[in-house]
């Protein structure tokens, strides 16, 4: 199996990874960290997907997708931190004033897990950020040690996967997800 990671510019492929089974459902669509909370609360049902479709049409795309052949099998959200709620988050510190990019969500479709796709997504997100001039990229994964993590809450990623990709621990945070502390991991791209 060869995994190809590409910019998430094809909305139908993004829908495959993030969209609801029922068109009117209020699923995340990976918007909760991307847009101000007021807008996040106002967008309901199909309006959420329409917002993401617009992100896919404009530049840069809202993240990267992993493909197994032509089938989309994974998603990673990556964008300039200044364009996300991490720019104002009180629980996740800023290490310095660099205009870093944030990588905050990794999702692999059921039936495709345990095949290295999350590792390919991290590498693809790093290259995407580098290609768009990011001086560094940050992630805010769970520091779960060897403890199991509920798959619905594993979207933030796991510290060990970011360490494997060359990220280093940059700071502790006061953010907790699924009972596990989150840490700020960073990779310098300069």
Automatic annotation (TrEMBL):
Alphabetical list of InterPro entries matching this protein: Acyl_CoA_acyltransferase (IPR016181), GNAT_dom (IPR000182)
Signal peptide bounds: none
PROSITE patterns: GNAT
N-acetyltransferase domain mapped to chain residues: 38-190
Coiled-coil regions listed in the entry: none
Protein name: GNAT family N-acetyltransferase
């Amino acid at each position: 199996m060869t995994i190809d990671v590409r910019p998430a510019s094809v909305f139908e492929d993004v829908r495959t990874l993030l969209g609801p089974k029922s068109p009117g459902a209020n699923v995340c669509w990976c918007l909760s960290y991307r847009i101000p909370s007021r807008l996040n609360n106002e967008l309901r049902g199909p309006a959420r997907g329409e917002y993401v479709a617009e992100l896919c049409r404009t530049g840069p795309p809202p993240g990267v997708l992993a493909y197994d052949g032509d089938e989309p099998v994974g998603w990673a959200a990556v964008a300039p931190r200044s364009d996300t709620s991490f720019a104002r988050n009180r629980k996740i510190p800023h290490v310095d004033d660099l205009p870093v990019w944030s990588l905050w969500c990794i999702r692999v479709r059921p039936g495709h897990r345990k095949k290295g796709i999350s590792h390919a997504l991290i590498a693809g997100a790093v290259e995407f950020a580098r290609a768009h001039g990011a001086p560094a990229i940050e992630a805010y994964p769970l520091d779960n040690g060897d403890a199991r993590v509920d798959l619905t809450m594993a979207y933030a990623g796991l510290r060990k996967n970011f360490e494997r990709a060359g990220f280093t621990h940059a700071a502790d945070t006061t953010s907790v997800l699924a009972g596990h502390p989150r840490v700020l991991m960073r990779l310098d791209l300069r």
